[in-house]
Amino acid sequence: DIQMTQSPSSLSASVGDRVTITCRASQGIRNDLGWYQQKPGKAPKRLIYDATSLQSGVPSRFSGSGSGTEFTLTISYLQPEDFATYYCLQHYSYPYTFGQGTKLEI
Amino acid sequence: QLRLQESGPGLVKPSETLSLSCSVSGGSISSSRFYWVWIRQPPGKGLEWIGSMYYSGSTYYNPSLKSRVTVSADTSKNQFSLKLNSVTAADTALYFCASGPFRCGGDCYVLYAMDVWGQGTTVTVSS
After folding, report:
1. CB pair distance less than 8 Å for A49 and B60
2. If we measure between CA atoms, which residue out of B58, B114, B52 comes closest to residue A35?
3. Distance between CA atoms of residues A12 and A20, nearest Å
4. Which chain B residues are Cβ-neighbours of A55 within 8 angstroms?
């Protein structure tokens, strides 16, 4: 199984900050990675697909980078609605695996 | 626009079978354009992929659940379903169905991570 190690597990930040979340894959996964935002009790929302492509309708302050084994999600200018939990997902091989999640708090 | 909606009992007794359905609108469960997925999230924990199904009926399951799980399609209702047998309290979770883009040309493959999700349904395992 491919392990996705996501860090940090929690992050305290302020409106206007720039934050970066990292996912490391235990083996190469090309660009087969998505980033999701989840708010309590709600379904995850895809922000980034193919590691770097911005989902339609998602603000441009969100960006993804990386390929192979190391990936990052950057939020360039935090807004109040961005405080949520973020997950990466690899779909390179079965079983698909999520990172452990990063809770972004004020 | 594809939309998904989970349904099923919110309470299941230990050792019994959890059965959920995902109704699909805006697209066909038989289409080669999509793949279909079940994911769950125990209270206060992260997301866990349960299994995926393709239009051909091919299925892939999480090894941690493989002996207990079945994902199947009901084309007459345009639904896909999840069955998890011999449940315990550890199976208590928010269950989601989801879908993503699939491509079939000379080869068939998952194009991107799931982009359409149902709202989720909570299942509690308790006597």
Report:
1. no
2. B114
3. 12
4. 115
DSSP summary character for residue B57:
S
**What one-character-per-residue DSSP string does A29-80 give?**
-TT-EEEEEE-TTS--EEEEETTTEEPTTS-TTEEEEEETTEEEEEESS--G
Q: What digits encode the pLDDT tens for the residues A63-89?
A: 999 999 999 999 999 999 999 999 999
Cβ-defined contact of B49 to A100 (cutoff 8 Å): no
B75-97, pLDDT tens digit by residue?
999 999 999 999 999 999 999 99
| CA dihedral sign of residues B55, B58, B63, B65 | positive
The two tokens of residue A35 are 């980033």
Instruction: Identify whether the C-beta of residue B113 lies closer than 8 Å to the C-beta of residue A34.
Output: yes
> Is residue A88 within 8 Å of A33, Cβ to Cβ?
yes
- Cα A43 to Cα A78: distance, rounded to the nearest angstrom: 21
Q: Taking CB atoms and an 8 Å limit, are B113 and A46 in contact across chains?
A: yes
